């Protein structure tokens, strides 16, 4: 009988890291989008910027450095540390979509989550993972996933009702610790 700890796959963007705040900063700099922009439930940020600026998003995200200085989502560090005592915690990020992000993401994790070793960092394409729990903000990553799915709240997913939801890292702690 295996006595391994249960495994958790944790997404990066909009779960551990906050790319939305960075997008808003860049759109504010280049297109005067207000810094206090609130993304309406169900919307992507592209729905709140001028029509001609929508494609700029791909440019921002592909720029070297975009992912290096993202804010950490509140309480993520503390709760991840606690989760590690009870679970085997993996970072699973579909980083291959943005090859320029790889080094940024690796350095960002080393800075903010130095307690996650390289063996537990998975930069991938599709998230085909064999874990017991997955925490992610995109339901496309739950398709064909058999474990327990925790949908981490982000504006774009707020209208979805068919999933077990966590709004904050404090709620992750309440459910899993
Ligand atoms: Mg994400």
What does this structure look like?
The protein has 177 residues and is of the alpha/beta class. The chain has 2 domains: 7-18 and 72-176, Rossmann fold; 19-62, no CATH class. The protein has 5 helices and 8 strands. α3 (76-86) packs parallel to α5 (169-176). The mean pLDDT is 96. Bound molecules: magnesium ion. Residues 11, 13-15, 136-138 line the site of magnesium ion.
SSE arrangement:
Blueprint: E1 7-10, E2 17-18, H1 19-31, H2 56-62, E3 71-72, H3 76-86, E4 88-93, H4 101-112, E5 121-123, E6 133-136, E7 148-152, E8 165-166, H5 169-176
Parallel strand pairs: 1-4, 1-6, 4-5, 6-7, 7-8
Antiparallel strand pairs: 2-3
The protein binds magnesium ion.
Magnesium ion binds at residues 11, 13-15, 136-138.
Describe this structure in a few short sentences.
By secondary structure, the protein is an alpha/beta fold. It has 5 helices and 8 strands.
Defining traits:
177 residues, Rossmann fold, two-stranded antiparallel ribbon, 5 helices, 29% helix
Bound molecules: magnesium ion
**Quick check: average pLDDT?**
96
**CA-CA gap between termini:** 24 Å
CATH topology of the largest domain: Rossmann fold
Label the structural class: alpha/beta
Helix residue percentage: 25-40%
Number of domain units:
2
Estimated radius of gyration: 16 Å
In the CATH scheme, the class of the largest domain would be: Alpha Beta
Strand order of the largest sheet: 5-4-1-6-7-8
Query: Any guess at the CATH architecture of the largest domain?
Result: 3-Layer(aba) Sandwich
């Amino acid at each position: 009988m295996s006595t391994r700890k249960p495994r958790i796959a944790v997404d990066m963007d909009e779960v551990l890291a906050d790319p939305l705040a960075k997008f808003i900063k860049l759109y504010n700099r280049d297109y005067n989008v207000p810094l206090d922009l609130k993304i309406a439930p169900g919307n992507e940020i592209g729905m709140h910027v001028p029509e001609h600026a929508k494609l700029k998003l791909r440019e921002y995200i592909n720029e070297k450095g975009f992912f290096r200085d993202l804010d950490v989502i509140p309480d993520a560090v503390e709760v991840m540390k606690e989760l590690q005592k009870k679970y085997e915690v993996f970072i699973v990020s579909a980083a291959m979509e943005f090859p320029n992000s790889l080094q940024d993401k690796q350095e960002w994790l080393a800075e903010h989550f130095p307690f996650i070793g390289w063996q537990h960092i998975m930069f991938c394409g599709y998230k085909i993972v064999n874990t017991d729990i997955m925490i992610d903000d995109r339901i496309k990553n739950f398709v064909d996933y058999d474990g327990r799915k925790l949908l981490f709240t982000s504006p774009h997913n707020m209208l979805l009702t068919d999933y077990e939801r966590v709004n904050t890292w404090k709620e992750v702690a309440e459910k899993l610790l």
